[in-house]
Amino acid sequence: MKKDNIGIFELLTQSSFNPYNQDLIMMTQVRKYRLGITTTLILSCVTTFIPQHAQAQQLVVDVNVFGFNSNQENASQQLAGACTAVADDTSEAAMDLLNTCQLIDDLDQNNPDDVVRLQEILNTFAPEEAFSVNDSIVYVSDYQTTNVLSRINSLRRSPPTTDADSDSSESYWQSGSSSTLAFLGKDSATEQRATGGGAAAVGPLSRVGLFFSGQFSSGDVDGSTYEQDADISSNSFTTVADYRLTDSIVAGIGFGVLQNETTFSNVDGGTDSEGFNLTAFGSWYKESAGYIDVVLDFGTNSHDLERGIGNDPSAPVLAQSSTDSSAFSFSIGAGRYFSISNWDLGGYLRLSLTNGTIDGYTEEASNNNDGSGSVFSLDSQKAESTTMVIGVEASRVISTSKAILIPVLRIEYESENEDRKDDLTATLVTSQISTSYRGTERDTAYTNLGLGGSAVFKNGKSAYAFYETHLQHDFVTQNWIKFGLRLEFQ
C-alpha cells in the first residue's frame, strides 16, 4: 500500500480461483481511492474454497476509519491475517472466522452507520475485557491492606500507664489529645475511664487482641478508549490477631477472604474473582514523635471470565475462561497528630507497591453461534501499581457514660506512578495469529474522602464504621462502607 502527499491509496485487491487444478491465482488490479487525510482500513483479500461451486470470496473492505483506536486497528490486522491463514480450512471455527470477514466485507465505506458497525465488530473481536482481571488484583490487594490499616488505626494512642496518672488521664480523654483510638493497656487508667472505672487484672493474654473488619463497595468503571465500561462490586472480610509488644509497638497477622465482581455495561459478560490474603503488620507510635506503620500482604485469586463475541445480538455466544493470579503488596506509612483545642488534627504519608502475575489462559466458545471462532489464547500478564497517599484527618473524643466516641473526617490525595498497563498478547486459537492489545491507563491523581467514627466500650471492646468515596477520578466512581470490631482478652 502506498500513500502519496494528497492522500491517494493504491490497493491490490482482486483474486480469482481456478476450479480445475484448485490453484489460487492472484491477479492484481490497481484501484485508487481518494479519502482525504483519513485512513483506509483493509481487512484482507481472502479466498475460501467451496466444494463443487468452486467460488472465490473476495473479502476486501475499504472503510474510512478516522478515529479508530489502536486496539481496533490491531484487531483488523489480526482478523485479516487470520482469514488469510484459514482460507483452506473447512473446520467449523475457521468457517465462522471467515463469515466474520465476509460480514465486514459487506459493509459500505461511504455509509456512516456501517463505519459504526465496523467499530462494534472490532470491539467485540478484541479481547480487551481481559484487562478487568489486571484491575481486579490491584483492587483486591488494596482491600486487605486497607482492612489491616483500619485495625492499626484503632489501636493507636499512647496512654498513661499508672494509676497516679488518673487525673491527667481524665482530662486527656476529654481534651481529645493524640490520635484516633488507643494502644489500650489492661492496666491503663485510660481504659478504666473508658470502661467505667475499676482495676483490671493483667492476665497472660492481656496483650493479645482479636479484630474483625470488612468492607462493601460498589461503583462503575469508564473503560474510556481501550476497555469496556463496567459496573463493579466487592466485599472483603479480615480477621486479625495482634500482640502489644510494648505500649508503643504492636505487631500482628491477618487472614482475609474477598470477592470482586465486574459486569460489563455495553456487552455481555463479566469477571468474578475470589481469593484470600495473608498479612503481617507492625506499628510503632509515640505521642511526641508520631507513628510508622508497615504492612506486608500476599494473596492468591481465582478468576472466571466471560465476554460476548457474537455477531448477531439475537444469537449470543460467550468466550469463557478461568485463570489464577497472585499478588504481593508492601505498604509503609508515617504520620503525626496534633491537639488543637478539643480536636486532633493529623497528617500522614503512605507509599504502597503491588506486584502481581496473572496466569495465561485459553478461551472456549459457549456455543457455535456466529462469532464462536473468535476465541483467544492469552499470555500471562503483569499487574503493577505504585501509589503515594498524602492525607489529613480531624477527630474529636466525646466521652459518654456508655462509651468513648470518636468521629473522624479524612481527605487524601492519591497519585499512581504505574499508570500504563502492560500490553496483552492474544493469539487466535483457530489461526495461531498473534497481536497485542493495550488497556486504559490508570488515573494518575485523584482524591479520597472519608467520614466515620469509632467507639471504645467496656472490657476492651472497640468498633468503627466508615464511609469512603473517590473524588475527581477520571475512570472510576466507587463508594465503600468499612466496619470493624475489636475484642481484647482478659
Automatic annotation (TrEMBL):
PROSITE patterns: AUTOTRANSPORTER (PS51208). Residues 158-174 have a biased composition (Low complexity). InterPro entries: Autotransporte_beta, Autotransporte_beta_dom_sf. Residues 203-489 form the Autotransporter domain. Residues 154-174 are annotated as: Disordered. This is Autotransporter domain-containing protein. The lineage of its organism: Bacteria, Pseudomonadati, Pseudomonadota, Gammaproteobacteria, Chromatiales.
